[in-house]
Amino acid sequence: VQEKLNLLKQNTHNTVNSLLDSMALELASKVDTKIANGEEIGLLEGIPFGIKDVYMVQGTYTTASSDLLKNYKSSYTATAIQKLLDAGAIPLVKENCDSFGHGSSSENTIFGAVKNAINPDLVGGGSSGGSAVNVAKYFTTFSIGGDTGGSIRQPAGYNKVYGLKPTYGRISRYGLMAYASSTDCVGPIAKSIEDIRIVLNIMSGKDVRDQTTFSSEEILEESISNSSTIKTVGYFKNFIESEAISPQIKQDFLATIDKIKAKGIAVKELDFFNADILVSTYYTLAMAETASNLSRLDGTNYGARIEGENLKDTYSITRSEKFSEESKRRIVGGNQVLSQGFSDEIYLKAQNLRDQISTRFSEDFNEVDIILSPVTPANPPKIGDSLNDPLAMYLSDAYTVGFSLGELPTLTIPKGTETGLQITADKKKDEQVLQFANFLN
Ligand code: GLN
Questions:
Q1: Rounded distance from Cα 34 to ligand 1 centre (Å)
Q2: What is the CB < 6 Å shell around ligand 1?
Q3: Distance 174 CA to ligand 1 centre (A)
């Protein structure tokens, strides 16, 4: 624990906003005492982990990497994090990310851009960039990210580690700062499928504080080492034939498909919605939900407050000065699509498209067990290069957002293409995803 804290201290600007030193050292010494007394310790006891700074941990800063919540301290602990603490895991750090999860590069943060673990000139990916980089660099053994439209899977791919977005509702969102509640998912980033499995099992389960949760059975080690249930794999032809895909990613993906065929698994090409539809549906809904969720940050109850002439002024000055440009863009866009005269045309249309996307997924999963996809159409950009081009940034999410709208379990594995491979199964079949990942190993 001490060693990892030291490493994190040397890299604070890059990846971290606040260390949980005293809590970590106190917990670690308790584990040491247990070991010294010859007591048995649990699987996760003493294992150091990181937490994307959008999770409440009582008494610690939870900033969402934003200026608005720079000095905000949580008054309670998120369910998922509490379960890890109860299992004896040791939280080391709250991790840098795109402010409120708004972004795909971890540059939209007051703590400085997160640098890619493999090439520090490139972005770390986002929004859970700090979490993926910390795992890739062994600063944490695993980290808990948050994925609304790709924020665990894409940085995992950019930094060559594993990252799972579980089925929506498998892990409680209580204590996760809401971005877009209908797709927000809690999930682990780690160095191996086995670590993903262990952490997923601990965090999963029904929670009375999140009515979208369901109870799920433990995924056993034996069940994921046996690939016999996976007979047919599909992939979206239009993803691979799109103009936006880099030739290298396309070539590597198709080579991976050939390898899978050679292992005796049937492969099917599937038709799917194109990137423009997926990205615009996702961003319409995500912006509408974030406009609604962030309306509570008005300088009254939480975080920064800049006093104006009257209350209305206080709201508007606080929000205009303290939200980032990107968050303001989304709040304004979201309020617009929800407003009278626009909502039927835009918001309800996006809801309808989302239903169609879900239906298509259900049909596809009657024919295939697994859907494979590259994580991104292109390699990570250089830091600074795409920050001023929001549309390009949104389009880079083309391959991740569809699975979020479908509420499906999707795992990034660090192979198959330069930025990884996404393995997706039908709802609640997270076990099958891990099983197939093991098979590809
Ligand atoms: N890049 C996507 C967005 O900005 C996804 C972010 C996320 O999953 N939090 O909305």
A1: 41
A2: 101-104, 127, 147-151, 179, 286, 397
A3: 19
- Measured from the Cα of 147, ligand 1's closest atom is 8
Strand 48-52 to 142-147 pairing:
parallel
What's the complex ipTM? 0.98
CA gap 336, 324 in Å, rounded: 18
What one-character DSSP code corresponds to residue 380?
Answer: P
Residue closest via CA to ligand 1's atom 2 equals 149
Q: Counting atoms of ligand 1 from 1, which one is nearest the CA of 179?
A: 9
CA-CA distance, 393 to 388, in Å (whole number)? 9
Residue 40 Cα to ligand 1 middle (Å): 41
- Give Rg (Cα) of the chain: 21
Q: Tokens for 398? A: 């083309």
Q: Which residues have a catalytic role annotated?
A: 52, 127, 151
The CATH class, in words, for 1-273+355-441 is alpha beta
pTM over 0.95: yes
Residue carrying the six token digits 């670590």: 195
Q: How far is the CA of 98 from the centre of ligand 1 (A)?
A: 9
Start-end ranges of CATH 3.90.1300.10 in the chain?
1-273+355-441
Residue 17: pLDDT over 70: no
> How far apart are the C-alpha atoms of 98 and 326, rounded to whole Å?
10
Q: Which CA distances in Å does 216 have to 12, 171, 197, 199, 207?
A: 37, 9, 13, 14, 11
Instruction: Tally DSSP H helices, then E strands, for the chain.
Output: 17, 11
Q: Please state, as a whole number, how many other Cβ atoms lie within 10 Å of the Cβ of residue 427.
A: 18
Q: Write down the H helix ranges in 263-388.
A: 275-293, 311-322, 325-338, 348-367
Residue 61 DSSP class: B
Tokens of 147: 């994925």
In contact, 101 and 120? CB cutoff 8 Å = no
Q: Which atom of ligand 1 is nearest to the CA of 128?
A: 9
Q: For residue range 61-118, what is the model confidence (pLDDT) as tens digits?
A: 999 999 999 999 999 999 999 999 999 999 999 999 999 999 999 999 999 999 999 9
